[in-house]
Amino acid sequence: MSASTNMMFGSTLCKGSVPDRTTISLPISCSQINVLSKINRKPRSLPVGGLIRLSSALDSKAIYGQSLKLAPCVGLGLCQTPLRRIGFNVQAKAYEASSSDLVSDSDVEEEVLSENPSPQAAAQRLKIGIYFVAWWTLNVVFNIYNKKVLNAFPYPWLTSTLSLAVGSLMMWVSWATRLVDAPDTDLEFWKALAPVAVAHTIGHVAATVSMSKVAVSFTHIIKSAEPAFSVLVSRFILGESFPMPVYLSLLPIIGGCALAAATELNFNMTGFMGAMISNLAFVFRNIFSKKGMKAGKSVGGMNYYACLSMMSLALLTPFAFAVEGPQAWAAGWQEALRAIGPQFVWWVAAQSVFYHLYNQVSYMSLNEISPLTFSIGNTMKRVSVIGSSIIIFRTEVRPVNGLGAAIAILGTFLYSQAKQ
Description:
By secondary structure, this protein is of the alpha+beta class. The protein folds into two domains: 3-113, no CATH class; 119-418, no CATH class. It contains 15 helices and ten strands. The longest helix is centred in the first third of the chain and has 34 residues, at 119-152. The chain is globular. Mean pLDDT is 75; it is low at 1-114. It is found in: Plastid, Chloroplast membrane. One of its GO terms (molecular function) is carboxylic acid transmembrane transporter activity.
């Protein structure tokens, strides 16, 4: 990849190709740089002087999602602008200082740092907002139906398997009917996906086992401790270090979860350990996902999760048969039908469909937002799930138990801010 440059000095036009990680030297008379983003091909006219003065502020800013590093003019009037591997096309043109096309510094600050987004940015914000609302709503509906199914049919291994099977079937139909383009994968992609699928399978089953033993709200309170597991695993296994605010943010997370667990009216060790194992498994899933996305072919969020579901289904099915078995399933199914009626079948179908949809939307959201924004969205999702489950299932919550949940959720939010 290279950055194309056009330099005009008086009536002379010079064209050249500048390789990556080199510099573009501009004459002192150069007063404007046009930056053309690959995202929407909309040029930005920025004065060199304004860029120099704003260089420290804009080093980490994004111009249509791409970061441009700036450096002040040095030497004999040469403005050196190091190019990163960001895919910008830069057009440098010389203008007279009195040119009517010159943009003032205040205009630059207003355009680059303005809170009023362009139509394209506004549309992107709307799209992300729709993703978030759909993500939270689908997750709430899934948790409600999942708990109803588990109350009547306490077989979490089969319930987990059905969730993955229905989602996989939905994607196979979508690919066969060409509603969604099938992913272009290779062997390296599936090799990289394998450890992600193992961690996802363990986390999925462990969370379902937890919800079969305790209230939905309690499971999600414990699962809000996932950031603590992420930091501890990254620190002691991967050798990463974090700023002190990140470590301090773990104190309310751990303390809040401990307080909520100690005051839970219907505490169950299996349910507690299931949520804890789920936290640990999903941390490793995220770590493996980061490594896996660098290997093999690039696959979009929707298809990536579809492939993940299919591989997880293949891994989970034999274990479900070994742990629970068809005989127990048949007896439990008949008992659930007698107790609930045909409506039970709808509950099973609904929890399976909504499980796939909410995960699919969450992976689609990851394509559009930063990990920080996703982390904040995940925190708010837990708040909505905990609140709705308490209302719908009329879960009795002690004031001190609610305080512990609030402290844990607050700690999760502080963690997401500290990592920014």
